[in-house]
Design goal:
With about 325 residues, this protein is an alpha/beta fold. Helices cover about 35% and strands about 25% of the residues. The chain folds into two domains: about 130 residues, ornithine cyclodeaminase, domain 1 (2-Layer Sandwich), CATH 3.30.1780; about 170 residues, Rossmann fold, CATH 3.40.50. The strands form three sheets. Strands 1, 2, 3, 4, 5, 6, 7 and 18 form an eight-stranded mixed β-sheet that branches. An eight-stranded parallel β-sheet has the order 11-10-9-12-13-17-14-15, with helices on both faces. Strands 8-16 form a two-stranded parallel ribbon. The longest helix is centred in the middle third of the chain and has 18 residues.
Length: about 325
């Protein structure tokens, strides 16, 4: 068993934005071609702590370098008040030859980077006639910062970010961190969520909201909303938008905004297409200039496996990680002599 901690995972992924986006793109295309196996995620919830959850995402990604395994990720929003990260995760990769677990990876970095790459990829392919020069971020946590980093990598004209968080001090700290990381990149803190929604035609929602709390009424015509946290927008806003998803069966469950919209109208006709179909289409996607387009990615386990596989291969080439001999029991009869 090879164990790769946060340091080794970061060593592989830092500065590898183009490779990560390419891996996510490939995973989406393979999924659209039917080359994945994605059972529904398992949500472990706690009766006395409804905000907390742990999710299991098993997946298989096929083709030339097949990979199988599972991500086990927790979300405990109260951690932030104690100075801890909200999310923690582990990824197990299994051998495609024997099924044996062969690698254990720290998973929160993988999860954050694949989420950011997915959002950035959507922003780059759900295009407008006008290049994006600014983005609004609602929710100033780890995911928001990773998304901004990846947006900067794929959108060369991006030069401004407007941020909002219910905790203003958090938003101000986020803006200061952006200014320190990217000198010359313009930052602003919005007074309200509506001000942030109206500031730019590219909006990212990365909150811990459990129920809808926003509409798209303040958005400019032609806005693309990266609805990463899935439960921010009202059902009415979803029904009034052009909706792009990663997988309709996965995203229309567990009380997401799209799940609520489906329950309201009794169908999924409000979903226009999937990101995989967009990537495989002969013609580029042009979002309507007179309405709002919403990208709602459930966060498919195949993306985590794509990145975990990338990290695993790179780690083997670089000699990273710690090997644990004797992790598995000896083969039957091996100890008989």
């Amino acid at each position: 068993m090879l164990i790769l901690g946060a340091g080794e995972v970061r060593q592989v992924l830092d500065g590898a934005e183009s490779e990560v986006v390419a891996a996510v793109r490939r995973a989406y295309v393979l999924h659209d071609r039917g080359r994945t196996a994605l059972p529904h995620s398992v949500f472990l919830r706690f009766p006395d702590e409804p905000r907390n959850r742990i999710i299991g995402l098993p997946a298989y990604l096929g083709e030339d370098v097949p990979v199988a395994g599972i991500k086990w990720i927790s979300s405990f929003p109260g951690n932030t008040a104690a100075g801890l990260e909200r999310a923690s995760a582990a990824v197990i990769l299994n051998s495609m030859a024997t099924g044996h677990p062969e690698a254990l990876l720290e998973g929160s970095l993988i999860s954050a980077r694949r989420t950011a790459a997915s959002a950035a990829l959507a922003a780059s392919v759900l295009t407008s006639d006008t290049p994006e020069t600014g983005v609004s971020l609602i929710g100033c946590g780890v995911i928001g910062f990773e998304i901004l980093n990846y947006l900067r990598a794929v959108l060369p004209d991006l030069g401004t970010v407007t941020v909002f968080d219910l905790d203003r001090s958090r938003a101000e700290a986020f803006a200061a961190r952006c200014a320190a990381r990217w000198p010359g990149f313009k930052t602003a803190v919005a007074e309200t969520a509506e001000d942030a929604l109206a500031a730019h035609r590219l909006v990212c929602l990365a909150t811990t909201a459990a129920t809808p709390h926003l509409t798209t009424e303040a958005c400019r015509p032609g806005t693309l909303v990266l609805h990463v946290s899935l439960r921010d927008l009202t059902a009415g806003s979803i029904l009034g938008a052009v909706n792009v998803v990663d997988d309709a069966d996965h995203v229309c469950r567990e009380g997401t905004s799209l799940h609520l919209a489906e329950q309201q109208v009794g169908n999924r006709d409000f979903i226009s297409t999937s990101i995989g179909s967009v990537l495989r289409a002969d013609q580029p996607f042009r979002r309507p200039e007179d309405g709002v387009t919403v990208f709602s990615p459930f966060g498919l386990g195949a993306l985590d496996l794509a990145l975990a596989g990338l990290v695993h291969r790179q780690a083997l080439e670089r000699g990273l990680g710690v090997r644990v001999p004797g992790f598995l029991p000896e083969a039957a009869g091996a100890a008989i002599g």
